[in-house]
Amino acid sequence: MDFFSYQNHQLSAEQVAISDLVERYGTPLFVYSRATIERHWNAFHNAAKDRKHLVCYAVKANSNLAVLNIMARLGSGFDIVSGGELARVIAAGGDPKKVVFSGVAKTELEIEQALNAEIYCFNVESQPELERISAVATRLKKIAPISLRINPDIDAGTHPYISTGLKENKFGIPIEKASDAYQYASKLPNLNIVGVDCHIGSQLTEISPFVEAIDKLLALIDNLAEQGIVIHHLDVGGGLGVNYDDETPPLPDAYANAIVERLGNRDLTLLFEPGRAIMANAGILVSKVEFIKETETKNFAIVDAAMNDLIRPALYSAWQRIIPVIEKPQVALANYDIVGPVCETGDFLGKDRELAIEAGDYIAVRSSGAYGFTMSSNYNTRCRAAEVMVDGVQAHLVREREQVAQLFAGESLLPE
Ligand code: LLP
């Protein structure tokens, strides 16, 4: 559930009318709802309350400092994939001691940065990475807490670009090599084995692939215990899907309960790395209809947001709901492709949408809080959008709209 709704035909975020925000901040504009973020985060936290656990929000979904700060105030942990994300977490008041560091190729510098910040754990994805972390830790005379990301070879049944737990994917250590990898890690200097980790994909709408993966990991954990390697935490990754259209993904408590059930009486702290499930429906992208263009075969609504602002439709053929900011019962419904100004046919936000809109109106692309702004770019030398956080009756500008001069500030001409 989220806090975007119509009040007197006006789309609102909590108690703030989107049309007011558009007047103040212009478009394209990302608008987030604090109450929605807190509600979603708490859904995970409360679902696992009877077990030792840590919700490590996946920063890549939305890394705005205000978003991270809201999570930090809730006591959240963070799942990061770069030194940049670690810097953001710290700048937002997050606790580095609750950070897990995922990703297939952490650089020496990033490992050093993370060791100095005393993060909770490195999620290690390969043997060479184990060796690199061990070497950096030895040089710095520190002990690196590690977990191995296991690839359980499970079909998550999701889009191939965001499926990560199959043998052919680049992620993690194959389950059949896991035991040897742990033995190897146990012999490397300056490493402390603390966990087992997996992440099988994103936008999963069924519980069964998660449970299948966890059963494999629990069997591994039991097997490691027999070899004298004690695992303290199980990190189940992220991946819980959301409702974009008519999907019916399990709610966080059903998902967490299914996992908790499998743990039995094992003494394991449970880590979750949700990104999308917290943020997707906590944000919208608001855009102005510049022109209506009618052709022989189609009607286009050309809007001022484009694939550089929201690439999911172009990249994954993702479907996100598009609704008017002001409902106009007097305007006739028509079928539109909602397209942006970028010079590519793939530049669309939605196709075949029934909308009652006219030029000059505003539309909102729902479910844009996750993998929206963070995947945006400056393609076509377009400035990235502004971001606003609504909190009850208040709205805070949490990222200024980029200015053109910023875009080429680091560039230079050739010498004469
Ligand atoms: N943990 C790890 C190690 C991950 O790689 C990811 C996402 C997550 C957690 C969070 O997954 P979530 O709960 O958000 O599903 N750009 C794509 C999604 C890419 C997900 C990448 N990894 C999209 O817009 O659909």
User: Using only CA atoms, what is the Rg?
Assistant: 23 Å
Q: At the third CATH level, what is the topology name of the largest domain? A: TIM Barrel
The CATH class designation of the largest domain is Alpha Beta
Q: What small molecules does the structure contain? A: ligand LLP
Corresponding CATH superfamily of the largest domain: Alanine racemase
Could you say how many structural domains there are in total? Answer: 2
| Count of DSSP H/I helices | 12
Ends apart, CA distance between termini = 60 Å
The level of helicity is 25-40%
Rough outline = globular
Give me the secondary-structure category.
alpha/beta
- Beta content comes to 25-35%
| Major pleated sheet | 9 strands, mixed
Family: Belongs to the Orn/Lys/Arg decarboxylase class-II family. LysA subfamily.
InterPro entries: Ala_racemase/Decarboxylase_C, DAP_deCOOHase_LysA, De-COase2_CS, De-COase2_N, De-COase2_pyr-phos_BS, Orn/DAP/Arg_de-COase, PLP-binding_barrel
GO molecular function: diaminopimelate decarboxylase activity; pyridoxal phosphate binding
Pathway: Amino-acid biosynthesis; L-lysine biosynthesis via DAP pathway; L-lysine from DL-2,6-diaminopimelate: step 1/1
